[in-house]
Specification:
Blueprint (H helix, E strand, L loop, with lengths): L1 H55 L1 H13 L4 H11 L24 E5 L2 E5 L6 E2 L4 E9 L3 E8 L4 E5 L1 E3 L7 E2 L4 E5 L3 E8 L2 E2 L8
Antiparallel strand pairs: 1-2, 2-10, 3-9, 4-5, 4-8, 5-6, 6-10, 7-9, 10-11
Helix pairs in contact: 1-2
């Protein structure tokens, strides 16, 4: 009888645990949906206020236009600030993010000056990790660089990854540190760095 009672208690405890877990999952889902609508509403309100200010006040409109067209905006910095203070408006985004991320830093077997930057010799079929996260502002062919991906880093530096053989980066992708940018043709990666249109010494970035 004691064994039967013990078995019944175990079954009852398991049912209770399953019920509790289901309730927690349901609450988490509701909280995520609630958070999504709060963030979406906040962004919508900010957009409407901004639009009304521009339309109602000519001075504000001219100042904003002047700043936007005469300044080199760091979209990566804006994105980073937005994520830290508000968070992503789209819930579950990380669940569908299939881009690979390695914990290792960029490694190479040889380094030599090339064009306005540097040429790195890599291991065979080496998956190239991004030096610093930011926003993809260009993908395509560049003279003397081949297939190139340019990432505007969160520190305002534009990092050029050239001579790529493969890449899955798309324009305006937000990428994190050490995310894989692709592989290099003939195991040679061309790197170049700029900030506000001025070349940056690779030694200041490849530390």
């Amino acid at each position: 009888m004691d064994k039967i009672s013990d078995i019944k208690k175990r079954i009852k405890n398991k049912k209770t645990n399953v019920s509790t877990n289901d309730e927690k999952k349901d609450n988490n889902y509701k909280n995520k949906i609630k958070t999504f609508f709060i963030k979406f509403s906040l962004v919508l309100v900010l957009f409407l206020v901004f639009t009304i200010l521009i339309k109602s006040n000519t001075d504000i409109k001219n100042k904003i236009y002047k700043y936007v067209y005469n300044s080199n905006l760091s979209f990566a910095s804006i994105k980073k600030f937005y994520n830290e203070k508000i968070g992503n408006v789209i819930p579950f985004q990380n669940v569908f993010n299939e881009k690979k991320v390695f914990k290792e830093k960029l490694e190479y077997t040889n380094l030599s000056v090339y064009n306005k930057g540097v040429k790195l010799t890599l291991e065979e079929n080496y998956a190239i990790p991004i030096i610093k996260g930011g926003i993809v502002i260009f993908t395509g062919e560049k003279e003397n660089m081949g297939q190139t991906v340019i990432i505007q880093q969160s520190d305002g530096i534009d990092a050029w990854y050239g001579n790529l053989s493969t890449t899955n980066m798309k324009l305006y992708d937000y990428v994190s540190d050490n995310m894989i940018v692709g592989e290099a043709k003939n195991n040679e990666l061309y790197l170049m760095f700029q900030k506000d249109g001025v070349d940056v010494n690779y030694k200041d970035v490849l530390k």
